[in-house]
Amino acid sequence: RMxxxxxxxxxxxxxxxPLLTYREAATVLGVTPRTVWTLVQAGTLPAxxxxxxxxxxxxxLRRFIxxxxxxxxxxEP
Length: 77
Known about the structure:
Layout: H1 2-15, H2 22-29, H3 33-42, E1 48-50, E2 53-55, H4 58-72
Antiparallel strand pairs: 1-2
Helix pairs in contact: 2-3
């Protein structure tokens, strides 16, 4: 029962952070939407697909940024 409650709480938290479009993710990164598309196509940035729509989970975007920061500092997280 406690696991179900924790799972529900996690789902509520996730719902409070809506998925991002390529354009929104690009704005966060300071790049073009085409660059985000390229990152998704390469498998570097995970994406969620709904038919023809593609969205970026903000948590995945944060992990991508953290990995990039680690690589820029010569450290593998």
